[in-house]
Design brief:
single chain, mainly alpha, globular, Metal_Hydrolase, hydrolase activity, Amidohydro-rel, Amidohydrolase-related domain-containing protein
Length: 77
């Protein structure tokens, strides 16, 4: 709910045991508010990356945004 209400709230991808919540986040708030997170050292970065890349209902461009361009935009502010 906070993500819809406040444009400065972002979500990150780590620690989700399944991928369906990530797909739901992208559909509800848009891919531009999702950031890749590894939760290192508690989770294996490679597993978190595979989880994100395995979202078959999500466009490759949306995944690229979470992996790269969203952070570039956010951190350049």
């Amino acid at each position: 709910k906070s993500c819809k209400k406040f444009s400065n709230v972002y979500l990150e991808t780590s620690m989700s045991p399944v991928t369906s919540p990530l797909e739901e986040v992208i559909w509800k708030i848009g891919p531009e508010r999702l950031l890749f997170g590894s939760n290192y050292p508690y989770c294996a970065t490679s597993i978190e990356l595979v989880k994100l890349q395995s979202l078959y209902k999500v466009a490759d461009e949306d995944i690229r945004m979470a992996l790269e361009s969203n952070a570039e935009v956010l951190f350049s502010k």
